[in-house]
Write a structure and sequence with these properties.
- The protein is of the alpha+beta class and about 250 residues long.
- The chain folds into two domains: about 35-65; about 65-245, Roll (Flavocytochrome B2, Chain A, domain 1).
- It has ten helices and four strands, in the order H-H-H-E-H-E-E-H-H-H-H-E-H-H.
- It has helices spanning about 1-15, 35-55, 70-80, 85-90, 115-120, 135-140, 165-170, 170-205, 215-220, 230-235; strands at about 85, 105, 110, 210-215.
- The chain has a four-stranded mixed sheet with strand order 1-4-3-2.
- The longest helix is centred in the C-terminal third of the chain and has 32 residues, at about 170-205.
- Mean pLDDT is about 85; it is low at about 1-25 and about 245-249.
- Bound molecules: protoporphyrin IX containing FE and 2-acetamido-2-deoxy-beta-D-glucopyranose (2 copies).
- One 2-acetamido-2-deoxy-beta-D-glucopyranose binds near residues 91, 122 and 131.
- This is Heme/steroid binding domain protein.
- Keywords: Membrane, Transmembrane, Transmembrane helix.
- It comes from Aspergillus ibericus CBS 121593.
């Protein structure tokens, strides 16, 4: 095995080395000049760019790689600084006015989603997310009832339904402690969901961050506290294995 390798290796490395010694000047007819290397490199680069252009359907010579500074709207926004809009101002950017970009907001951060008018433009599947901060709907999935930044009461969605029989056996202290733990976990899950969608828009190739909504707190304070929407209530799981375990399921 090793002798075979050595045999194969030996002739190939020993044969050409005396002839193509690159340390000799390039006026040697058989040597490889710098120019030759450049020619080969240039050919390779052009071939690669061409291949990318062909494979991406004449869209990109870099296989779809677009650093942020090659995107004009992103550069303009960077130069102008973050855009600050009130909820009323933001409502204009809902895809109805074709001269305006389409914006949506997650947890107070505004993203430009104009690149996807089929989904976000007038008549699009997710047009209801635009022109507003609908963070609550991003978590509950209730796209009719929950188009608001008001997150009060969403915790319930992630708090398991108690078995009344089992709960009777707990002391009030134990119940309180469990309630606090439930709330902590629920808030964590909401954070994770919101962060997921914020990250989705921030990391998306075609969308970009434009700024912040100002005055969301005032809007929330004016709203009535709402019930958790029905669809989200139905998603709630049952408590399993907390405290004293019951036989059922
Ligand atoms: C909490 C629940 C949900 C949220 C927050 C949500 C949110 C979204 C968002 C923001 C997009 C657009 C992605 C983009 O910009 O490219 C999207 C796309 C999509 N979602 Fe959902 N979605 C949810 C549940 C569902 C469900 C249950 C279905 C299936 C019935 C669904 C079907 C789709 C489809 C087909 C698309 C592709 C774009 C389109 O055709 O409109 N989504 N979703
Ligand atoms: C978009 O906003 C404008 C102005 O606030 C409003 O007249 C229009 O009905 C809204 N369009 C949709 C689809 O909500
Ligand atoms: C939402 O924004 C507030 C600050 O505006 C921040 O404290 C909070 O952690 C954010 N929530 C998530 C889920 O990122």
């Amino acid at each position: 095995m090793s002798s075979e390798l050595r045999q194969r290796h030996k002739p190939s490395s020993s044969k050409p080395s005396p002839k193509t010694s690159t340390s000799t000047p390039s006026n040697n007819a058989r040597g490889i000049s710098i120019l030759d290397i450049l020619r080969v490199l240039a050919t390779l680069i052009i071939a690669t760019l061409g291949l990318s252009y062909y494979m991406t359907g004449s869209e990109s010579v870099l296989f779809g790689y677009r650093p942020w500074f090659t995107r004009l709207p992103v550069v303009l926004r960077y130069i102008q600084g973050p855009l600050l809009l009130t909820p009323t101002e933001l409502s204009l950017y809902n895809g109805t006015d074709p001269t305006l970009p389409i914006y949506l907001s997650v947890n107070g951060t505004i993203f430009d989603v104009s690149a996807n008018p089929l989904v976000y433009g007038a008549g699009g599947h997710y047009n209801f997310f635009t022109g507003r901060d609908a963070t609550r709907a991003f978590v509950t999935g209730c796209f009719k009832e929950d188009l608001t930044p008001d997150m009060r009461g969403v915790e319930e969605m992630f708090i398991p339904i108690d078995d009344p029989e089992e709960e009777k056996m707990l002391s009030s202290g134990e119940r309180k402690k469990r309630r606090e733990q439930d709330l902590r976990i629920a808030r964590q899950r909401i954070q994770t969901q919101v962060a997921h969608w914020e990250g989705f828009f921030r990391g998306h190739k075609k969308y970009f961050e434009v700024g912040k909504v100002v005055g969301l707190e005032e809007v929330i304070a004016k709203e009535e506290k709402r019930e958790l929407c029905t669809a989200a209530k139905q998603q709630r799981g049952r408590r399993e294995g907390g405290g004293s375990v019951k036989g059922k399921e």
